[in-house]
Amino acid sequence: MIAYIRGTLDSIQDDAIYVESHGVGYEIFCTNPFVFQEQIGEPVKVFTYHYVREDTQLLYGFRKTEEKFLFKKLLNVSGIGPKGALAILGNAGVQDFVAAIEREDEKFLTSFPGVGKKTARQMILDLKGKLSVDIGIQIEGIDIESNTAPSVEQETMEEALAALRSLGYSDREIRLITPKLKESKLASIDDLVRKGLALMMEK
User: Fold this and answer.
1) What is the pLDDT of the chain when averaged over all its residues?
2) CDD domains recorded for this chain (predicted)?
3) Which end of the chain is more exposed for a tag (fewer CB within 10 A), N or C?
């Protein structure tokens, strides 16, 4: 998995930026590429999510780790794909979105392109209580856990689970082995994926 890319910002298109690193040009799709406008020709570090399916491989990029974290969580919601997740990130701040999930604010959630009441309810069902622990916000004067982005360990685990998902395993199958993966204390994505495959074979 590609966690981030550090290189020189070569150019910007309507939906993507192009970053050159060690002679390789990476096309990275973003919510609003033009936020990088002033960095053309300058070094940049872009947090990336490597989206892999049978017929496509794409890189999605973010300026902050919490944006990447939310993007990955949104992809786990039935009915939301990469374009829908990018549209949500492009139209709302991370904290505003998390607050809306915690308050079950369907009116706010259905304001995003392509999100109807059914999808809004599904987002609340799947995400409520699972975002605020890692993305600190304040709701009605109450601080929710920390104000820090996901740790390196959490990022590594999320990348490993995404890799297992790309290999065809269902969310249900992955949820069943996740506790044992966490107990393994393995530190690399490759080791976690190998352990995950071994656990799948034991079932």
Assistant:
1) 85
2) UBA_RuvA_C (cd14332)
3) C
Is 124 or 1 the better-scoring residue by pLDDT? 124
Distance CA 39, CA 65 (A): 19
Cβ partners under 8 Å of residue 23, min gap 6 = none
Q: Mean pLDDT, to the nearest integer, of 177-186?
A: 86
Q: 189-202 and 152-166 helices cross at what angle (nearest 10)?
A: 50
Q: CATH number for 4-62: choose from 2.60.120.10, 2.40.50.140, 3.60.21.10, 3.40.50.2000.
A: 2.40.50.140
Q: What class does CATH assign to 65-143?
A: mainly alpha
Residue 104 to residue 121: CA distance in whole angstroms: 8
Using an 8 Å Cβ cutoff, are 78 and 71 in contact?
Answer: no
CA distance 117 to 167: 31
Please state the pTM of the whole predicted model. 0.65
Q: What is the pLDDT of residue 141?
A: 39
Three-class SS of residue 2?
Answer: coil
